[in-house]
């Protein structure tokens, strides 16, 4: 017990230190952002300097966003646009300055955060359902066609992190969530970057722009889409973490400053759509940089024509190959259609039609199959297990032999002759007792070493097999399997294989051998005890069957209810910024507590069943002690040492029976 106590103490100390470090880690200051009433400018940053760590990322920021206005934040990649949105949310360390927001906030992140729930639940996000408003938001965010393609419509369940959605779909759902929340301030971190240009125009016109659903809201939009900038009320240009200039679209163009430079660079390097380029050229035709824009447009046009001519030459030379390619593609498409139609007939189940994607994890029932034990023993090594079992039997034989030898020594009257110690006999008894003790030490040490080696090998082998299979499953597996369930296998279940299962196997072997040794000693000392063993064994087997069946199922329920905790924690962690922006912390905390409570509800029956078992095993132990003592008294001709050995072994039956 002492080595186990020391090991557990060290583990508890390390765990306590880690938890203490986590609980005492630096937190975001809730006073980073004040919420003083301001009718004119609901979003204000004055002389703000912000950082993610030690070095400042944003410096000397001064921004004012008027109520019901649309402000755009532009700049090169890495200039600090997303960081500025985070600063408005209070997610960055404020080194100096003042940040104030007046009103509720809706936030759309650059990487859309999607819950493992239905499309409808993702949009509502805890808000009450209003059919008229909901339908209006769905149409404005261009989600109607997506819903129509799905058999369950908006009741379709989304996989973890929106794994079964495209980037554009996730971004539109995230935007719809923000619009439906009906907040006062909208912080939009480049929500149009993941959608097609025509979809982006639809969303801007119907949601973000001057005639959209949010026209009466305060909007701060991070964007690379310069076609939208003429419709904004204010443009803020970031360069190297500073506001280089701000003003209306035309003011900044005519100023020929950082904004004009950014615009020309963006046109020259990042716009590939000729239609969009022509549209921007028309917009900027009469501005101060109109001539430069027309030059870029002509240059891009010449490059495009050159590429087209080269492509046409290759087309003439490779006409035959292309005909073959087209024919092949048609054949492949026809085959794919047949395959898909066949698969759809075979795989479309009621579950899919209802939009259910992730099936709840089900607890197994019934006995653990012998194949499971066989697989574990095979992983350890059959010959190694037999060697460990043989060494345990050897240890118990040495242990019983040493105790019997002490009894024989105590009953030997020839060790004293006329008050003088018979040194020859004493040395003989000591030598035999010492050899038996050394045999115990070596057998138990060798048994533990071999078993440790085998269980480590089994744990590594099983972990590799699990990892090998997970790394080779189809991607569809992760669509329908929560990450928490996979983590549960690699954490809780692997921990059981690493620690609990080896201890249980070792204790099982040693306990069986020791119980057999104990019953042998008692039966040898008091033969009448054999008559009691059979009814006691029947009673014990009945109790064991009842307990194991109950305990096994309770442990399965505990394991099943642990996976949702991991999934919910991971989902909450990845969406922490969105959750804080929408002020939904208490909702997610309560949800997490409910999942933990459910898991603890499944843990409680384990304690109750253990108490039920201990009461009955203590009764069996008392019966064994009673009959061992009774028969020892009845058989008066037995040697006192042997009787004492029988009773002492009977007293040890408590712990062995309980295991």
TrEMBL record:
Swiss-Prot/TrEMBL catalytic activity: leukotriene C4(in) + ATP + H2O = leukotriene C4(out) + ADP + phosphate + H(+)
Entry GO terms, CC: vacuolar membrane
Compartments (UniProt record): Vacuole membrane
ABC transmembrane type-1 domain ranges (all copies): 388-655
Enzyme kind, highest EC tier: translocase
InterPro entries, per database record: AAA+_ATPase, ABC1_TM_dom, ABC1_TM_sf, ABC_transporter-like_ATP-bd, ABC_transporter-like_CS, ABC_transporter_C-like, P-loop_NTPase
MF terms (GO), sorted A to Z: ABC-type glutathione S-conjugate transporter activity; ATP binding; ATP hydrolysis activity
EC id: 7.6.2.3
Keyword Membrane recorded: yes
Keyword Transmembrane attached: yes
Domain ABC transporter: 43-265
Main location class: membrane
Protein name: ABC-type glutathione-S-conjugate transporter
Native source organism of the sequence: Acanthoscelides obtectus (Bean weevil)
